[in-house]
Amino acid sequence: MTDPARTGPPATDLELASDLVVHAARLVRAVRRTLDLPAGVRLLSILDEHGPLGVSRLAVLDRCSQPTMSAAVAAAADRGWVDKQPNPDDARSSVVTLTRAGRAELARIRRTNGETVAARLAALPQHSRQDVATAVAVLRDLLDISLEPHDLSEGAAR
Amino acid sequence: MTDPARTGPPATDLELASDLVVHAARLVRAVRRTLDLPAGVRLLSILDEHGPLGVSRLAVLDRCSQPTMSAAVAAAADRGWVDKQPNPDDARSSVVTLTRAGRAELARIRRTNGETVAARLAALPQHSRQDVATAVAVLRDLLDISLEPHDLSEGAAR
DNA sequence: CGACATTACATAGGCAACCTATGCATCGCC
DNA sequence: GGCGATGCATAGGTTGCCTATGTAATGTCG
Fold it and tell me: Which domains are delineated in chain B?
């Protein structure tokens, strides 16, 4: 298994953190190849989590640029997954809402992808369901703190 | 924080597995934006782990197509990170080897990326080092079993 | 109330990473 | 020697994402 020529087994915090990213990248591509992972899924996922939002705020939450999110919203709107209306309180901004069809599409993708991944996880006796939850939590929290600390956190609540 | 309109909090195995992929995708893009994550890193990482290999085998290990790996190898060879020689035992195939410079480059990227990610992880008191190790293991093992079951698993070592 | 910075979004243009399809040379085998 | 299988390269096209920039609406301030 181990090759004597390798630099060293992943042991340090640095290698661990680096490996986290590398393996995440591999997983994403592997999923994109075999399953169905359009970029718009993340948009639907955010709207499902946070409710209606404007484009810029969506971009921040997805850690992408505003033009990228504009395109994603336009594409999703074309397919009827989201509804984009001008904000009545601010003519500059929009309000993007998850439609019923979008919710169904999100559920469909979650189901298909989830089934595959869950099946593979089930074949790994060394990893409990709790381990997967831990992995998800690590990834999520890792991103949360990489945002601007004060402004974007759901301005609706206040 | 929670919005009453949302479909539901991630609870089922399916949603958990799906969220794993979505969050992984977000992390990868977030890292690509701020840090340095050229595609070739994965190639170097594989060579570091497994030692010299041919292009097709590398592609399988990285879960990418063979042409993609051919391009990655060519790019890495241009920069002196790998050495590509014809296989003396089989004129069809090549043997790609990690050079000293490639090893150094891999160490550099692991250091810079690792420092950033590790620093952010350190700012998350709710996640232990063990949690990160768990996350890495889940991602890695998840990919291991998605391969052909018998042939490619470093047939050399055993 | 008019000038000016700020904010929210759209558009233009381009690049990087991948993929499928296909061609070519070699190897294994009968 | 013919023939399928294997290893790799090339061609062509798609997706995803970025920076730079323009435009319109909003807040601010003299």
Answer: 30-144 (1.10.10.10)
